[in-house]
Amino acid sequence: MKHRILELYSGIGGMHCAWNESKLEGEIVAAVDINTVANQVYLYNFPKSNLMTRNIQALSLKEINDMNVNTILMSPPCQPFTRNGKYLDENDPRTNSFLYLISLLDKFDKLQYILMENVKGFECSTVRNLFIDKLNQCQFEYQEFLLCPSNVGVPNSRLRYYCIARKTTSTWAFKRKTEIMMSLPKAYGAPDSIESILEKDVSDKYLVKNNILKRGNVLDIIQKDSKRSCCFTKAYTHYAEGTGSIYTEASPETVDECFERANKFEVGTDNFIETLKELNLRFFTPKEVLLLMSFPSSYKFPETITIKQCYRLLGNSINVKVVSELLKLLFD
Predict the structure, then answer these.
(1) Which pLDDT score is estimated for 170?
(2) For residue 30, which of 65, 76, 81, 79 has the smallest C-alpha distance?
(3) pLDDT-based confidence at 77, cuts 50/70/90?
(4) Annotated active-site positions, please?
(5) Rounded distance, CA 287 to CA 292, Å?
(6) Are 161 and 146 in contact (CB under 8 A)?
(7) CA–CA distances in Å: residue 235 to residues 13, 243, 313, 316
(8) Which SS3 state, helix, strand or coil, does residue 79 take?
(9) Percent of the chain predicted with pLDDT > 70
């Protein structure tokens, strides 16, 4: 069956990449996002796409039905379900477009399949309950997951909520009914090492600056042999803690020895910073982060997009490999 897909909150096209990787039959008939910078990147990589710079609430039921889509892939705004977003849940205006879509689910003519991604925390929300209630009302079979890329052999932590749903008379063999699954039914190997995604001759502009080095003790530092990395957020390169891993060519033993010497000085002082500079700590490049998020090696950012914009867009994107594996389950 050749599927007709509507990609909502399309961002830089992670769902599009996942669909391509899945090798399933079908086409993205339309993509919708209100972010003009993300749309520039999307069109740069998928120039023939029917990409609409629209507020999703401006899409009428008739307009969607006229597309004859049977599949919706979407990653609604996550801020309403995070601590940084004050966890306002259904009271956050950024949920309005998703609530609008939920209200339409029983009115779509041909919709048979849904894949939805969001941040961990969504599973505890009122909006999630409204979504699941509507799926039940519309007689969708569904399964929820909390998954990390490390579950599918990718050396990165990015725990996210996923829901796959379809209208069917049969159930999945792996289904856990009311339970949220923490892994996929298929077994995957151990993650590759970070070395597999490293660029050569990385510019000095990616070296960690003094304003971050002064808080060096909170950095997550990894090497080429590491088989893990922390979640990269849109604040990467701007804050030291919890925004993503830092790379060094120095061995773990050298890193430990350097920090031991640095910590003989007061944290944040010039001597502390100068000692840590010996490690040549650097940020991962946007290309490297793309690869850690399983985007294809051919994917590129246009030169008009700044490095800051690249990281912000990546922080809001998805892991392509995880979604690709879920798509295979959805249509199994």
Answers:
(1) 82
(2) 65
(3) confident
(4) 78
(5) 9
(6) yes
(7) 20, 6, 10, 10
(8) helix
(9) 98
Amino acid at 214: K
Q: 74 Cβ partners below 8 Å, 6+ apart?
A: 7, 8, 9, 15, 98, 101, 114, 115, 116, 117
Phi, psi of 141 (to 5 degrees): -80, 135
Q: What is the pLDDT of residue 87?
A: 67
Backbone dihedral angles phi then psi of residue 119, each to the nearest 5 degrees: -80, 155
Q: Which residues pair with 72 in a beta bridge?
A: 6, 114
pTM above 0.85, yes or no: yes
What are the beta bridge partners of residue 32? 8, 52
For residue range 180-206, list pLDDT tens digits in order: 999 999 999 999 999 999 999 999 999
pLDDT of 47 reads 98
**String of DSSP letters for 225-289:** T-S--PPP-TTTTT-SSSS--EE-SS-HHHHHHHHHHHTTSPTTSHHHHHHHGGG--EEPPHHHH
**Angle value at C-alpha 180, between 330 and 95, nearest 5 degrees:** 80
Q: Are 246 and 202 in contact (CB under 8 A)?
A: no
Q: Which two tokens stand for residue 65?
A: 């039905």
**pLDDT given at position 80:** 77
pLDDT band at 79 (very low <50, low <70, confident <90, very high): confident
DSSP 190-239: PPPPGGGGPPSS--GGGBPPHHHHTTGGG--EE-TT-S--PPP-TTTTT-
The two structure tokens encoding residue 313: 């867009």
How many alpha carbons lie under 13 Å from residue 9 in its C-beta half-sphere? 21
